Amino acid sequence: MAKYRLLLACAAAFISTFALGAEPAMRHVAAAGEKTPAAPKEPAITFSSVHVDGPYIAMTFDDGPSAVLTPKLLDLLAAHHIKATFFVIGENVAEHPEIVARAAREGHEIGNHSWSHPNLGKMSQESVRSQVQRTDDAIKSATGKPPALLRPPYGSITEREKRWIHDEFGYEIILWDVDPLDWKRPGPAVVRSRILKETRPGSIVLSHDIHPGTIEAMPSTLDELEAKGFKFVTVSELIGMATPVTPRPSPQQGGKAPLKAIPVVSPSPSPASSPSG
Q1: Domain 46-240 has CATH 3.90.1150.10
Q2: Are 162 and 170 a contacting pair, CB within 8 Å?
Q3: Is 208 part of the annotated catalytic residue set?
């Protein structure tokens, strides 16, 4: 009888041990069958255009402030009740802080465009940091607040630079989808024609407030953009209006091959083909 009880005890111990070892394994098998939640999509930090519901666009002006031309442009924008975004050069801000202060006071957005307009994509991290920081300081001194946007000169910036500049300064990286090539000084009529032809809802329009022909083109350009129904906002306001792109029906749903949806973020312009900015 004692032997029988001993055998029963050994059997019970074996079954208990097996069950304890199997439970984690079963939990692992069950977990393997569960779907792993998708990692949250990182927000975009680079914008050439924005998908928006409505006829909103952002006019941007680079390389100023110019002592003569920028005040003329500010007068024109005030007459039209238009808010624009100025990507300023730090050296010019240091020379004319009162113009930048006026632009900010009148509701325009001020963005960082480097200290001396070099090709950031070909510079060391410390050199880039110096270009960005000095301009950031100059803008804060002139306006009382730091900028939220950076436009790299020539649109030249590496993916790594975008990330660490965004992480360190909190900047969105702003490019463009409309370029009238006004730096080539083609004349006011050509600048106007190119802007009117290329601008779409959500466009970020590039031009420069350091070229007389651009300033001459602006009165009729703004008139015609307004006549087309466009409404003007700053770049940060445009980004804030971003809406998801509605996917096209699949061939099974609609019977036709889907067209490509308009991306929220457009490809960066190539500095070689577009030395603007």
Answers
A1: no
A2: no
A3: yes
